Amino acid sequence: MFKKRINKIPQHIGIIMDGNGRWASTQALPRNMGHKEGINAVDRTIDALIKFGVKVVSFFAFSTENWKRSEEEINGIFNLVRDFLHSKRNNFKERGVKITTIGDLTPFPEDLKTQLALTKEETKDNDKLIVNLALNYGGRSDITRSVNRLIAEGVKEVTEQDILDNLDTKSLPEPDFVIRTSGEERISNFMLYQMAYSELYFPKVLWPNFNERHLRKALKVYSKRNRRFGGIK
Ligand code: FPP
C-alpha cells in the first residue's frame, strides 16, 4: 500500500463554504451561529493554507443570490464579516495575509465597506497568502460587468482574453482547485469564466467543521488529479 502524498500544491484554491445552516441545526442553534463557526473555520483554514504554501484562496462569502435570505440572516453575516476584519486586521499583517475582494460592494452597509477598505489598504503589501473575499459576487454578474466595461471603452468585438482581463479577478491566477463542502455538488454561480479548467472536489464535511485534516485530504486528492487542459498527457 502506497501512502497518498501531497506532491502538487494548487496556486489558487476557491472555496464554496456550504453547510453552515445545517451545522447550526444539528446543534439546535440559530443559522447565524453556523455562520459564526464558519468564520472560525475561515481563520483556521487561512493558517492551514499558509502552512501548505498555497498562495491565493478565494472564499465565496456572499453571493448575488444570497440577498434572497432573511434580513436577519443577511445582517448577521455582514456583522460577522465586519467584526472579523476589524478584530483580525493586525493579525493579518502578522501572518502576511493580503485581503482583496471580488464582487460589487456598492449595496453593502457603510460600516462594512469601511472595514473592507481599511483592511485592503493596510494589508496590501503582504505577500504570504492572498485571501480574496467574494462578496455580492456572481460569476454571471462578473462576466456581464466585464463585457459592459469593454463596451464602455468602445470595443466592437471582444476576445476571450479581453473578457478575462476585465473580470474582477484580473490580477489573480485562475483557480486550480475548487472545494465545495457539505456534499452538495454544484458551482452556484461562482467563478464561471475562471473555472473552465479547475479541478473540483466535494467533501461531505460541513463548512464549520472544516480543518487542517480536511485540507490535507483535499490536497492529496488534488495531487492525484491529472490536469490536461483539453490536451493529451
Ligand atoms: C452557506 O451555508 C454559506 C454562506 C452563505 C456563506 C456564509 C458566510 C460566512 C461563513 C462568512 C465568510 C466570511 C469571510 C470573512 C470569508 P448555508 O447557510 O447555505 O448552509 P446550509 O446549506 O446548510 O443552509
Textual characterization of the structure:
- The chain is an alpha/beta fold.
- The protein has a single domain (2-138, 174-223), classed as Decaprenyl diphosphate synthase-like (Undecaprenyl pyrophosphate synthetase, 3-Layer(aba) Sandwich).
- It contains seven helices and six strands.
- It has a six-stranded parallel beta sheet with strand order 3-4-2-1-5-6, sandwiched between helices.
- Helix 4 (110-123) links the parallel strand 3 and strand 4.
- Helix 1 (20-26) crosses helix 2.
- The chain is globular and about 55 Å long.
- The model has no long low-confidence stretch (mean pLDDT 97).
- It binds farnesyl diphosphate.
- Farnesyl diphosphate binds next to helix 1, helix 2, strand 2 and helix 3.
CATH homologous superfamily heading: Decaprenyl diphosphate synthase-like
Number of extended strands: 6
Radius of gyration, in Å, reads: 18 Å
Gap from first CA to last CA: 26 Å
Low-confidence runs: none
SSE ordering = EHHEHEHEHHEEH
In the CATH hierarchy, the architecture is 3-Layer(aba) Sandwich
Q: In which range does the helix fraction lie?
A: 40-55%
List the total number of helices. 7
| Distinct ligand kinds | farnesyl diphosphate
CATH topology description: Undecaprenyl pyrophosphate synthetase
Structural class of the helices, strands and pairings?
A: alpha/beta
The backbone outline, from C-alpha atoms, is globular
Write down the domain tally: 1
